[in-house]
Amino acid sequence: MRASPLLRAAAMSSIYDFQVNDAEHKPYDLTQHKGHPLLIYNVASKCGYTKGGYETATALYNKYKDRGFTVLAFPCNQFNGQEPSTEAEVKEFACTRFKADFPIMEKIDVNGDKEHPLYHYLKHAQKGLLGSTSVKWNFTAFLVDKEGHAVHRFSPGAKTEEIEKKLLPLFDDAGAKL
């Protein structure tokens, strides 16, 4: 008997163990980010956190992309139907309105029976408030170190400086002047 995807996810040791797809529904190889930190968001276009979340993600990406850092944005429609758009529409929206040049991924569920195994791993590696393993809202972010381990969870509305404080020590040249 084969183990369920969520049971397999619980046994995984890093994000590199998971299969994800990009906005065009093509496989996206997470191992291309080995050796570099990244930030994984669940995003939505019609949320009160949309402007701030995309602005924070874009600012961080633009500031640190030359050091190998990236952001992966996973559209999700599980919170009040705030992401009804297709992946192509999300990508157009994010790139046009917020100049988001980081990868926009395939739309997924982050909670429930159909949650993506990557999110099962992230949520259990970095639990939320009071040990919760659910994502409470859009623009929850997970910071991943260069070995692919989730090392911090940020609540929606986390500011650039707050994330940056946890991100900077993850670079090989953490002591270098910025």
Using the coordinates shown, work out and report the CATH topology. Answer: Glutaredoxin
Write the H/E string, N to C: HEEEHEHHEEH
Largest sheet: 4 strands, mixed
> Given the helix and strand composition, which structural class is it?
alpha+beta
Mean pLDDT: 89
Shape: globular
Number of helices: 5
The poorly predicted ranges are none
Total strands: 6
Overall number of structural domains: 1
- Radius of gyration equals 15 Å
The proportion of residues forming helix, as a percent range, comes to 25-40%
CATH homologous superfamily assignment: Glutaredoxin
Family: Belongs to the glutathione peroxidase family.
InterPro entries: Glutathione_peroxidase, GPX_AS, GPX_CS, Thioredoxin-like_sf
Protein name: Glutathione peroxidase
Pfam family, one: GSHPx
